[in-house]
Design a protein that fits this description.
metal-binding (chains A, B); 18 helices; alpha/beta; nicotinate phosphoribosyltransferase; TIM Barrel; seven-stranded antiparallel β-sheet; NAPRTase_N (chains A, B); homodimer; 540 residues
Chain lengths: 540, 540
C-alpha cells in the first residue's frame, strides 16, 4: 500500500492535551495498566445517506507502529504540565510504545454503518487513551471524503470518468492530499494533485487554465508555427492549417469568423504543438459556441491531418447540460463533414463548481459529458464537512462498561463484540449482526434472531446464504500482523463493497436504512446492564 | 514568527498537473519569460459576512523562498508527461527558483474584502503559474478558518474565553494544525492540539474526558486517597474529606446522596490528587445537577481546605444556557454556605457541538458560561467549508489583461494596482480605494472621488482623515525583504484590524457591506479596455 511517510505531523503530540493530562492522572493513581477495550464508531451516516466507506486504517496502523515520543516532545510537555508532575512519568512516556496493544478492525474500504465498531482497541487504558484523538482524526476525514467520492460516483453510470480537482480549495495542504488519496479509494479515477500522484500512485490529470488562453492576444504571439507529422515525419505549417480549418468550419458550425478569438486560437495551437498527443482545450475563456468550440475543432482537425488525435475539450462555466449537447452536436456535424468518425466521440470534460445536487440535476437533464472534474464541494464535503466518529470505553479489566445518555442513540453497546455480515441468495448484504465474544458464530443457512439494539419490538429471523466475519486482528505483538492490501486493491475492494449493497441503500434521495442488529443474547446482556446502571428516580 | 517546518507537503509538486503542463507549453513556445502580474483575491466574503481575515502569507513566502524541485520530482514528472517532452525542460525545472519574482502583499491578519488583491505576484509567467495552486491552497483555508474564529469571537463580549477543540474532526491531521494556528490568529485563546502548541507556541488547554470518569466504578477503585496540604505540608485524608463535604452539601444543594455517582466522585478525587492546582471536572457523564455538580463541589471544597483552588467544571451536553445558570446558582449557594468567595466565580466551560448560531442563541438567552470549547463547526467551517480565492492574470509584458464574464462579479480589474484604506475621524475604516500604479497617492484631508468598480452610478466623494497604503513588497531579489511579525504580533494586529471596522460590518446578521472602490482614472481605464474587448454581437 502507498507510503504515508509524508505525514510527519502524525505523531504522538498530534493529540488533545487532555489525553496527556489523563495519562498522568492514570499513572499517578496507578491505574494506567488497567486493561481496557475501546470501540471506535460513528452514530450517523454522513450526507443524509445510508452507507459509509471506512478509510484511514493503514495510516492508523502506521501511527501505532511508529508511536514514540521524542525528547523534544517531553521537553515541551514539561513546559505545559504543572511542575509537580513527577519525573518518573516523563521517563515512562519516553519509553512508551504500543507493543502490548491489540487492534481489531474491519478492512479498509469496507462499507460500514452506524454503531458498528470499525476498530476495537485493547490494552492498558493509558495507551488506549493516548491513541484516541489521532485515530479519530485519521479515520474521520478519510472515511468522510471517501464516502463523498463514492456518492458522486454512484450518481452516474460507470461509463463516466471522475477527476478530483480540489487542491486549491481544500482544508490545508494535507487536507488536499488526504482528499486526493481517499477520493481515489471511493471510486474517482484520477486527481490533479501531482504530489498525490507521486506519493500514492494515483493517476494525475489536467491540461491548461484560462490564464494560458489569456496569455495569447493574437496569432502574432505565436513563436512556433510548425508541427511534425507523426506518421510521415514531414514538417507541416500547423498554424496555417488551423486557420484554414477554422474558415472551413464556418458554414458547418454556423459561427462568425470575427467572433472566434484569435488569441484563443493561438493559445490552442501553441498547446497542441507542445502536446500533440494530449490536446484538451479549455473552451470557455471567451464564448464557448462562437469561439471556443470552433477554435478547438480547427486545431483538432489539423492535428488529425498530422496523424495525431485530439483528446477533447473542457467546459468550466455556463449551462453544462445544454452546452455539452451543443458541443456534441458540433462534434457530430464536423465528424460527418470531414468524414472523421473519431471527432464525434471526443471527450467532453465539465468542471464548474459541481456538487452532488448539480450532478443529479445534470443526470436528469440529458447531457453529453464524459468526464467530471470536481473540486471544492468534493474535497471539503460541503454537504457535511465532518464525520462524527467517537471512541468509547466498552470494557475495563474484564468488566463491561455502558455509557448512558438521555439520547438513546448515544448509549454505547457494552463489552467486546464480534461482528458478522449476513448475505442473501443474491449475494447482497442483508444485515450486520453483533454478538458477544463468547457466543457461537452465526452459520449460513441457519435461522438467526436479529434484534434492533434499542427497540425491543424490532426483530427479524434471518437465514443467510453466507456469513462473513468482519474483524481481523491487525495489530498485535508489536507488529502489523494482518497483511495490508495495495492501494489499488483497496480501491477495487471498496467498489466491490458498494456493489454488495442493494441499490436502495446507496441512492442519493431517501435511501433505505441498512439494518445493524444484535443477537438476542447481546440484547439481553446490554439491557440488563443498562437497567442496573440507571438509578430509579425519586419524585416528591 | 512560528516555524512551518512541519509542512513537508508544501513543495513544488503540491500543485495541479496543468500548471506543469502549461509550464512546458510556455517553455516549448518560448513564452515562459513573458513578464506577468497575477492578482490573488476572492469575490465574496465567507459565511454571509462582510469581512475576511487574510492569513497564510508567511507560509506562502516560505514556500516561495524554498521553491526547488527535487530529483525525485523530476523523475516522477517524466513518468507523467509524454515521452516527447524535451529533456532541456526538465533541466530547466531542476534549476528553477523564485529569485526573480516579486510578491506584494497586504500584511497577514489584515481585514480584507472582495476584489481587493491580497497578493500580487510579478515575474516570468511560467513561475507565476507554478506558484498559483499552492499559494491558493495556503491562503484559502488559513483565511477561511481565521475568519470563522473571528466571527465566533465577535459574537460574545471580550471577557469570554475561546478554546479550539477540533483536532479529532478536522479535515486531515494538517487541516487540524492549520485550524489551530489560524483560529488563534482569529482571536481564540488556546487549543487542545498539543502539536500546535509545540510548533506555534499557542497555549494548550484541556482536562479529562468521559472515559476517565467511566473508568472509575466505585470509591474502591481509588488507590491514592491522600493529598498534601499546599501550605502546611500536612498529609490529609483527601478522599474522606471529599465524602464528608458531599454529605454537607446535601441540604445546601438539595440532591439525593445515592444519586451522586460514587465512581464519578472517585474519578474527580483521583484527578484532583494528580492535578491539585488544575482541577476542572467534566460533570455530565451521569447527571449534571444530581451527581456531577455535587461531586465536583465536594472535591473543590476539600481542595480549598488543603489550600488549593479548583479551576471549574465543564458541561458537554444538555441545555447549556439553563445548566450554566443552575450551576452558577449552586456555586453561589455553596460559596455563601462555606463563606468561600472564590467558589462563586469558578470557571464554567461549555463544549457541546457549538456553532455560530448556537453561540448567538446562548448569548440571547442568559447564560453563565465563561469559556467556550469549540470543535467541529469551527475547524471544518460548517457554514461554508471553502473560501474561493482565485488567481488572475492582470498584466502581460506591460500590457493590461482583462478577463470578461457574463457574470459581472467575475470580471477582473486589469493592470497592476495600488490599494489604500481610507479612515474617518473616528479611526474607523471608511472604504478601500484601488488606483492605477502611475496615479498619485490619495492624501489625507483631500476630497477623493471613489467609484464602484462596476456600477457607473455608484460613487462618493471621500475626505479621509488618514490614508494607509496597504501593500508591502515582501519578496524580491530572492529574499523575504519585509520583516514578518511574530505570531503573537500577527494575532494582536488581527484583533486591532477588526476593531478598526465599524460594528455593523462585523455583526453576524445582515451586516453592512464595506465599500471597495476605484479611482475615476482606474474606472475609466478598465471600462475602456472592457468595451474594446467585447465584440459587438450580430443578430439576424
Amino acid at each position: 500500500m502507498a507510503s504515508a511517510e509524508y505525514s510527519s505531523v502524525v505523531q504522538p503530540l498530534l493529540t488533545d492535551l487532555y489525553q496527556i493530562s489523563m495519562a498522568y492522572a492514570y499513572w499517578k493513581n496507578n491505574k494506567h495498566q488497567d486493561q481496557s477495550a475501546f470501540d471506535l464508531y460513528f452514530r450517523k451516516n454522513p450526507f443524509d445517506g445510508e452507507f459509509t466507506l471506512f478509510a484511514g486504517l493503514e495510516e492508523c496502523l502506521k501511527f501505532v507502529r511508529d508511536y514514540r515520543f521524542q525528547q523534544s516532545d517531553i521537553d515541551y510537555l514539561r513546559t505545559v504540565l504543572p511542575s509537580y508532575v513527577e519525573n518518573e512519568f516523563y521517563e515512562y512516556l519516553i519509553q512508551l510504545d504500543m507493543k502490548d496493544m491489540k487492534i481489531y478492525s474491519i478492512p479498509e474500504g469496507s462499507v460500514v454503518f452506524p454503531r458498528i465498531p470499525l476498530l476495537r482497541i485493547e490494552g492498558p487504558i493509558i495507551k488506549a487513551q493516548l491513541l484516541e484523538t489521532t485515530l479519530l482524526a485519521l479515520v474521520n476525514f478519510a472515511s468522510l471524503v471517501a464516502t463523498n467520492a463514492a456518492r458522486f460516483r454512484a450518481t452516474t453510470g460507470s461509463d463516466k470518468t471522475f477527476h478530483e480537482f480540489g487542491l486549491r480549495r481544500a482544508q490545508g495542504p494535507d487536507g488536499a492530499l488526504s482528499a486526493s488519496k481517499y477520493c481515489y479509494l471511493g471510486g474517482f479515477d484520477g486527481t490533479s494533485n501531482v504530489l498525490a500522484g507521486k506519493l500514492f500512485g494515483i493517476p494525475v490529470k489536467g491540461t491548461h487554465a484560462h490564464a494560458y488562453v489569456s496569455s495569447y492576444k493574437t496569432m502574432d504571439d505565436l513563436k512556433l508555427r510548425e508541427l511534425r507529422d507523426q506518421t510521415t515525419g514531414e514538417v507541416r505549417p500547423f498554424a496555417q492549417m488551423c486557420v484554414d480549418y477554422l474558415e472551413k468550419l464556418v458554414p458547418i458550425l454556423g459561427f462568425i469568423l470575427d467572433e472566434a478569438n484569435s488569441g484563443e486560437l493561438a493559445a490552442f495551437i501553441s498547446y497542441a504543438i507542445a502536446f500533440p498527443t494530449g490536446f484538451l482545450g479549455l473552451v470557455d475563456t471567451y464564448d464557448v459556441l462562437k469561439s471556443g468550440v470552433p477554435n478547438f475543432l480547427a486545431v483538432a482537425l489539423a492535428l488529425h491531418e498530422c496523424h495525431y488525435q485530439a483528446i477533447g475539450l473542457r467546459l468550466d462555466s455556463g449551462d453544462l447540460a445544454y452546452l455539452s449537447l451543443e458541443v456534441r452536436d458540433r462534434f457530430t456535424r464536423t465528424s460527418v463533414a470531414f468524414n472523421i468518425p473519431t471527432i464525434k466521440t471526443l471527450t467532453i470534460v465539465a468542471s464548474n463548481d459541481i456538487n452532488e445536487n448539480i450532478l443529479m440535476s445534470l443526470e436528469k437533464q440529458q447531457h453529453a459529458i464524459d468526464t467530471f472534474g470536481i473540486g471544492t464541494h468534493l474535497v471539503t464535503c460541503q454537504k457535511q464537512p465532518a464525520l462524527g466518529c467517537v471512541y468509547k470505553l466498552v470494557e475495563l479489566n474484564g468488566s463491561p462498561r455502558i455509557k448512558l445518555s438521555q439520547d438513546i442513540s448515544k448509549v454505547t453497546i457494552p463489552g467486546r463484540k464480534n461482528l458478522f455480515r449476513l448475505y442473501g441468495q443474491d449475494g447482497k448484504a442483508l444485515c450486520d449482526l453483533m454478538t458477544k465474544m463468547d457466543e457461537e458464530e452465526p452459520k449460513a443457512r441457519t435461522r438467526i434472531l436479529c434484534r434492533h439494539p434499542f427497540l425491543e419490538k424490532k426483530r427479524a429471523y434471518v437465514t443467510p446464504s453466507s456469513v462473513h466475519a468482519m474483524y481481523n486482528l491487525y495489530w498485535t505483538d508489536g507488529e502489523i500482523r494482518h497483511p495490508l492490501p495495495t492501494w489499488e486493491e483497496a480501491r477495487k475492494f471498496a467498489q466491490e463493497q458498494i456493489q454488495s449493497l442493494r441499490k436502495d441503500h446507496i441512492r442519493n434521495l431517501n435511501p433505505t436504512p441498512y439494518k445493524v442488529s444484535v443477537t438476542d443474547e447481546l440484547y439481553s446482556f446490554m439491557h440488563q446492564l443498562w437497567i442496573e446502571s440507571v438509578p430509579i428516580g425519586e419524585l416528591s
